[in-house]
Design goal:
- By secondary structure, the protein is of the alpha+beta class.
- The protein has helices at about 5-10, 20-35, 40-45, 50-55, 65, 75-85, 135-140, and strands at about 95-100, 110-115, 130, 145-150, 155-160, 170-175.
- It is globular and about 45 Å long.
Amino acid sequence: MNPFVTLLLLLQPGPASPTDALGLDLDHVARAASLMVDGDVCRRIQTKRSLDYLLKQDPRDRWLGSDNYDVNHEAFIQTKKTLIRLSRLCEYPCDVNLWMPLAASPPRVQIVIRNVREMSQFWSWGVMHQETPPEMKRTLETGERVTVRKRPGMVSVLAPVRDSLGDIVGLVEVVGQVAADPRENVK
């Protein structure tokens, strides 16, 4: 190789910070996830009965939606295994979570599958669904991968999940931390 070219390659700047390197690695996983996660299967994860209860409110039963959460096991397990395999593409702890939009006004999303470490910049423990954050809305509407750095030292990349017709039916959150704390996300 030409010594001048070698010198240029050596002088090429690397990532500016650990979170930049983390974001780049997570983006690669998110790109793969968009291709590997089957949106048709994802649509079959939650049962119709469970979806019917999800948005109902009962003043006598605050946990009506949570208590009646149910999945089609074959679709759930197939997708969960895919998400776990995708998380192993990183050389450090990361999670790949599945979020699906709900037919509600205002628009809402639900975390359908959380992964091993329960890392997320969007999910709060015990919350079944929430208003769609602007970053997720952007991914769901445009199909763009969006990098999010809301919490210090944590990076998420949101990527669309498509069905066999190419329609966006959900999104994955590929998330990691510069210095992972195994207890932080399960408090």
